[in-house]
């Protein structure tokens, strides 16, 4: 009994709801990322293998992969955000397709290595153009993906008000 004559309300472990596992520690979500990453990496490797390497020029394949990946990530994230909260199937789709497939498909490490390889006195301008162009085109592609998905959803949504008067 407490000083007031009422039972003590000292918090116990049972007073708190059970703690949920953080998403980054959930084995099922990690498996989705792993499988998606394997698929994205395999697709990138196939494209890189099928192309001819550009030893000193612009590495067009890596540039295209990263720009297309940025565009697709913008579309995916906008569509998922516009359809509801990041839970359930939306979280699974974001992690599998966004973090996994597109994370494995796009490649910062190859971009960084290819940029450094071009930072020689003979190809410095090419290296600089490649680095700057990759960043600008990637951001522009992501913005285009977001905007395109937003317009697609707005176009497909039923028009309120325009049909009410008919």
UniProtKB/TrEMBL annotation:
One protein family per Pfam: CRCB
Region (Disordered): 1-24
Location(s) in or outside the cell: Cell membrane
Residues annotated to bind Na(+): 103, 106
Transmembrane segments: 29-47, 59-80, 92-111, 123-146
Catalytic activity reported: fluoride(in) = fluoride(out)
Membrane topology classification: Multi-pass membrane protein
Biased composition (Basic and acidic residues): 1-17
PANTHER family: FLUORIDE EXPORT PROTEIN 1-RELATED
Family: Belongs to the fluoride channel Fluc/FEX (TC 1.A.43) family.
Protein known as: Fluoride-specific ion channel FluC
Organism of provenance: Terrabacter terrae
Gene expressing this chain: fluC
